Amino acid sequence: MKRLSGLVITLNEEENIHDCLVSLFQVCDDVVVVDSNSQDATADIARELGAKVILQSFLGDGPQRSAGLPHCKHPWVVYIDADERLDAELVRELANLDLEHEQIEAYECRRKNHVNGRWMKVAGQYPDYICRVFNRAKTDFSPLGTHARITTDKLGRLEGHILHYAIGNLNDMSTRMIRYSDWQSQSMFEEGKTVSAFAPFVHGLGCFVKFYLIRRGFLAGLDGLNLSIFNAMGSYLKYAKLLEKINSTPRHSK
Predict the structure, then answer these.
(1) Looking at CB atoms within 10 Å, which of 30, 50, 60, 62 has the fewest?
(2) Distance (Å, rounded) from C-alpha 59 to C-alpha 64?
(3) Is residue 157 classed exposed, middle or buried when 0-12, 13-18 and 19+ CB atoms within 10 A define those classes?
(4) pTM confidence score
(5) Which domains does the chain have, with CATH numbers?
(6) Average of pLDDT values for 193-208?
(7) Average of pLDDT values for 216-223?
């Protein structure tokens, strides 16, 4: 087995964490779970499977993942979310990966996003290239509150896939939309971003056109329509919440 560490951040993921960690342990002899004080059995299941569990109040997506890196044994890390798995091809590639390649600091692969139990190939869902294997001694996560990424120009590419099972039904879509719009609006507010009163409408409409028409979400029937609508609503809410934060901030006279 290659000397790889696995990394997962969690919050109340007892339904997902077992399969996630079993997937990682196929290629990793060391797995770290950074748990945001889950109220369910997430941490207990992770410990039973042999993972090292670190309890840490949520710091934001990037900082939360970075908090787990000092607890990883090995320089090379594979990180996935609790609702993700490694497919068989990716497992084989990771097992045979040349980790001593001097020019590469990280590897990206494609992700198969499943919506309502079905692999979604349109609406911007595939190919969804993501960087999930990296040398923590040479690079780290961007310090973003949402959708943090590994920052490096020395990037290789793998042919295997990450299997992503985040969206099961309309309730899942709604929950993700609200959660991510909260995080993203807060990040933009902290960065000092300002927008016009028309921004929510313009971005929401543009998002729907992008995913449903340009990226052919209409080919996926009702699932494609639902996903495009919720993406558009999420974009609308992100900017509407930003405006709300800006307008509710006390203005100090000079």
Answers:
(1) 50
(2) 5
(3) exposed
(4) 0.87
(5) 5-167 (3.90.550.10), 170-248 (no CATH)
(6) 96
(7) 95
